[in-house]
Amino acid sequence: MALARDLRLEDKVGQLFWIGFQGTIATPDLRSLLDRVRPGGLILFSRNIEATSQVRSLTDTLFDAVRIPPFIALDQEGGRVNRLKPILGATQAPLDLARRDGALEAVRLHASATATALKSLGFNVNFAPVLDLSGTDTANGIGDRAFGEDPLAVCRLAGVALEAYQRAGILGVGKHFPGLGSARGDTHVTLPVIRKSRERLWKEDLLPYRRLKRRLPMVMAGHACYPAFQGRKRSPATLSPRVVEGLLRETIGYRGLILTDDLEMGAVDQDEGSETQALLGLAAGNDGLMFCSSVDKIVAAHDAVLAAVRLGALDETRIDRSVRRILRLKKRHLVERRRAPFAPGAVARSRATLAVLGGGRSTGFDPTARV
Q1: How confident is the model at residue 369 (pLDDT cuts 50, 70, 90)?
Q2: I want to staple 90 with a disulfide (CB 3.0 to 4.6 A). Which of 107, 153, 233, 359 is the partner?
């Protein structure tokens, strides 16, 4: 794989973007979008998923459609957030697994079966585990998507899940930094303000990131506002240099990839435009910019970053720092490891394992769904 300095600017900028799309096949319009943006990551939602062979065919097409091997991701947490329900059936929520006798083994089996299926279906990234501290209350947009409210228990269970993903060849993503457990609103629709003290956030919400920082290939920044770190400015932590570059990168010492959550969510001021959001995301220190739905927003954001570099408003060395991290991870996990063969039998065995663990409450409201 080429070094960052050897890539054309268009390829470098493309590597920063993680994009969603419509449909269950690679249409000419989607291929045109991929040719223009050259994304570093692609994200599938329930709208893209119908059946086992269809998903593998789609991920194969996506993988081959861009010159630099892409991250291909989805949110397969279990419970309500279950993109693969047509394929894997209903699955247990993380909180339900955490409350069982033998929780560590239950989480390991759940993560291992999930990752095995993902690998066979052509994915290489799962946007999990959730590291937020939350009980059953869903007012924060998290609820039973978390492993519970005890930060030490979350560290243990998330660590087991990450190990299972890694063994199966899937990259895990810890989310949503610095933590949405204390939010009183869902970032998909509004900007919550979390007024916990710096000391409590450090001891509680940030503990999983501190403990697991060397085991997390990627971290996703969340869209709540934290006055303890951001001061009086009311904006998402995702777009705050104090939180992303200052807290996560410098204070905690995290060295992996940092991704924004979807920049089309309600917590982000959509009136500012995707161009502004993309540039703010890079200024904050993020390596990946996520736009999950709108083609117009994806193109506008991509073109704005490209133009900013060409005009000298954004230093190309800033882009290079992120691209180096991206290419290192891709070389290790996407290039040096062969793409797994399609194995319908492995997917069926994963479904059977997950069924033994119990179906769970997968019919509840999924706040992450995109229609």
Answers
A1: confident
A2: 359
